[in-house]
Structures are given as C-alpha cells and as structure tokens.
Amino acid sequence: MAWFEEYSQVNQATASPDRRGPTSQTLWFPPATGTLKLNVDGEFLSSIQYGGTGGVLRNDQGDFIAAFSYRAESVLSPLHAELLALKYGLDFLHAMNVTKVVMETDCLVAVQAINSSTEDLSELGALIHDIKGLVGVVGDVTVGFTPRQANRVAHRLASYSFDSNIHLDWFGHALEFVLDALMYDHYRI
C-alpha cells in the first residue's frame, strides 16, 4: 500500500488547478545563495538484475557543476535503486568536498526514510542507516522531495547508466544528451 500512498502524494503535489501549463511545483528551482543542489534518481526494471543511478550537481544560478551515472548491481526494487542513488550522490559530494547542499529525489518514500528519526527494520534498513551516516559526514545536507518533472536531468542520467557498465562522472561540462534538459531548467528560473 506504500506505493499507492506515494503515488497519491506525488499526484496531489503536482496537480495543476488550471491545466494550462506547468506550475511552480513542476519546475526545477535553484538552491539558496551559496548552496549547491544535487538532484538524484534511481531506475529499476524487474526483468534485469541491475539498476541505474544518476545525479546532477548545480549551483545557485542553475549552472552545471558535475554529474554522475552509475550502474548498480543486484537491485531489489525501485526504492532500492532510489536509495542507492542517494548513497552514491552522498559519496560523490564527499569526494568533491561539498559540504553545503540540498539533495532532491522524486521518491517520497526514500526521503521519508532518510529524514525519519526511527530505525528502519526493513530489508533496506542497513542502507538507510548508511545514508543517514553519510549525511552527517558530508556536512550541511538537506534531503527533500521534488516531483519527477523537476528531476528530468537526474532521470536521464540514471537511464543512461543502463547502457553503460562503468561509473561515469562529468565535471564542468555536461554531455550532450542532458543539455536540453539542463537548458529547459535553467531558462525557467
């Protein structure tokens, strides 16, 4: 039933009263001045034994800083893929010495699990515990939810990892396959 609750909350959060165009809730917004934002996403197909993860780091002007696209082996569920994207994103930030960041994912259940003060006893509890620990190690990190429409670039990066069997990182310049989505976000700030 948790999937239905997430589905309902996402659809309520992105509903547009007049249906003429995207609302502010469906657009990517830059973080506060002096803060970076890392959008992450996880991909999962039940027919294969691996998932995909991706993330894009941007500054308070919406400019591209860096991105990653990693394949994740032995993924059990869509939630597992989303949690791995958060973990890999935190590892990515730690390696780059980024200490003040807003992280966003389009998986509300993952956000709730990470922000919960109670211990998770599910099969993904150890991963959730690890992610909570990494949040503390990285520094000033806020983990929040964003609708999928505002997470396009991370979604493309996660999808891209299905075609690649290596960890890919980009710094300074984005690859062509995400440029249009980056520009779409950037010019709507």
Describe this structure in words.
With 189 residues, this protein is α/β, with parallel strands linked by helices. It has a single domain, classed as 2-Layer Sandwich (Nucleotidyltransferase, domain 5), CATH 3.30.420. Helix content is 39%, strand content 23%. It is built from six helices and six strands, in the order αβββαβααβαβα. Helix 2 runs parallel beside helix 4 and helix 5 runs antiparallel to helix 6. About 8% of the residues have low confidence.
For CATH, the homologous superfamily is named as Ribonuclease H-like superfamily/Ribonuclease H
Average pLDDT for all residues: 84
The order of strands across the largest sheet is 5-4-1-2-3-6
How many E-type strands?
6
The CATH topology is: Nucleotidyltransferase, domain 5
What is the CATH architecture assignment? 2-Layer Sandwich
CATH class membership: Alpha Beta
Largest sheet: 6 strands, mixed
The sequence of SSEs as H and E is: HEEEHEHHEHEH
- Gross morphology is globular
| Percent helix | 25-40%
Distance between the termini: 36 Å
Unreliable sequence segments? 10-24
- The share of residues in extended strands comes to 15-25%
**Count of separate structural domains:** 1
